[in-house]
Design a protein that fits this description.
- There is one protein chain.
- The protein is 58% helix and 10% strand.
- It is built from five helices and four strands, in the order ααββααββα.
- A four-stranded antiparallel β-sheet has the order 1-2-4-3.
- By secondary structure, it is of the alpha+beta class.
- The chain has one domain: Arc Repressor Mutant, subunit A, CATH 1.10.10.10.
Length: 127
Amino acid sequence: MTERYPRLTRIYWFLTNLDAAIHREWTLSLGRRTALARMAHLFCELNVRLGIVGLAEENSFDFPLTQSELSECLGLTSVHVNRTLQEMRRTGLVEAESRRVRILDLDGLKGAAEFDDSYLYLDERPR
């Protein structure tokens, strides 16, 4: 396959590297980030990735997870997720209701998450 379809091989390799980069960020989240930073990072990443495919509009996107499911994703308790969401609302970072997240302060959210989207390889595309 690599000899016959080199472009397809490069695309697969790019996607493998992208998956690995996202995995490294999630490992970092679980090991080093605070609950607020973990959640902020998730919302920032989803905003970027969903925006690329046209599923995020004006820093707003569908978010069908319950707080219990979100707690499992973030390695937190449901209570901690609830308190973190309340803190994010109180500080004006996000609004989460009706299974939708709306980012009110993108720069503030990025700052809380220490979010740098360079790991998503947005400027590099396989040739």
